[in-house]
Amino acid sequence: MAQSLSAIEEQYRENGFTTLPFPQDLRLEMLEHIETHIRELYAFHNEKEAERKISLETIVAKIPDDIWSQKMHRGFRMFPKKITEKLREWAHSCIAIPFNKTISAVNAVDEKEITLNPKLTQESLAIYWRCVRPGKPDAGRPHRDATFWVIELEQGYNPKIPFAFDYIKDCIKVWIPLKGCTPKTSLQVIPKSHRMNLPVAVDDTEYGRRPNIEKTWLESHEQDFASPPELSQGECIIFDMDLVHRGPTHNNNELRISAELSLVVR
Q1: Residue 1 maps to a domain
Q2: pLDDT tens digit sequence for 21-64
Q3: What is the CATH number of the domain that holds 123?
Q4: Closest Cα to residue 147, out of 192, 110, 187, 199?
């Protein structure tokens, strides 16, 4: 007999996403790691001011764009093992189990990221953070994460998942707001867009190959983008790999910091 859907999974299947409570102690540990990283980056380039007690916003504003772009490559934004293990355990108990799944895993970092960042190893998990600066073009274009899987697998990426899986059906994206995520600046999604047929292309950019949804389609669905109110209240969002989403332009005075991972379940 087939198992009935949990309330969490039912909402996820219907809308393409749902929100979940996220442990505050783990959020604070993640933020502490990120703040240390940013302050160390700033101190390296501003030795005379390294010991000043200034806000992250002030620090980030003083880091030149070229240095920021170089040092904010995804390979430098991976969480250390002590945090990724806690996140993987949380995701299994709070996502995989309510979805009636018995096994789960998180994909590994790419070989190119290991080459770039000597702190990473073959066992490092691709759980990373983002920091969007006020008034800067740090947010990506609207997209579906499934397209990223297609691009990366075609380029030879090995996610090192220890069981066979379908990158659309078995993969759940997790986005965690950490700082500066207000109703107007948090992640936006188009509900039920995981069921829509839409024109998607892949463009070559300065950051590599990136998915691109046709402009006319986006314009006709602009009014459908919405940020779940729970995100600005501390909850995280889990969503389907085919759900259209975006990080809006960030015009708040506070940095927008978030974390994300892909959980593969069977």
Answers
A1: no
A2: 999 999 999 999 999 999 988 876 565 554 457 889 999 988 88
A3: 2.60.120
A4: 199
> Across-strand partners of 238?
18, 174
Residue 220 lies in a domain: yes
CA–CA distances in Å: residue 107 to residues 17, 128, 134: 20, 12, 30
Q: For 237-249, how does the pLDDT look when each residue is reduced to its tens digit (9 = 90+)?
A: 999 999 999 998 8
* β-pairing verdict for 236-240 and 17-20: antiparallel
Any domain includes 2: no
Q: What's the number of domains the chain is made of?
A: 1
**Whole-number Å distance between alpha carbons of 126 and 262:** 8
Which residues constitute the domain of residue 74?
A: 7-265
Residue 130 CB partners (closer than 8 Å, separation 6+): 77, 138, 247, 256, 257, 258, 259, 260
Q: Are 78 and 113 in contact (CB under 8 A)?
A: yes
